[in-house]
Amino acid sequence: MASRGRKRKAEAAVVKLANGGEGVEEATIVIEHCQALRLEAPELPVKVNPAKPRRGSFEVTLLRPDGSSAELWTGIKKGPPRKLKFPEPQEVVEELKKYLS
């Protein structure tokens, strides 16, 4: 379990990103991993939890137009510690690049 100090730092980082000096017109939630993917492939739509997520899961999947899918990241069988369930954004971006090339 993360210490209280670490959690507060993470929350502060999200607030900083959301308010990052650009003047947000409405309330905004920033998910760092989605930001990295959107910067790498801005033409791809990103869906966050299109269905109810499974308990303890964190997955990133590329859905192709032909109906197939490619798993970019799964944290289901990772951990403990819990932090292993979540990838570094660059890991997911590198995996996405493999499928877009």
Automatic annotation (TrEMBL):
Keywords: Acetylation, Redox-active center, Selenocysteine
A Gene Ontology cellular-component term: Golgi apparatus
Domain of life, source organism: Eukaryota
Keyword Transmembrane helix: no
Coiled coil feature spans: none
Membrane-crossing residue ranges in chain numbering: none
Family classification: Belongs to the SelWTH family.
Purpose: May be involved in a redox-related process.
Name under which the protein is recorded: Selenoprotein H
Biological source species: Saimiri boliviensis boliviensis
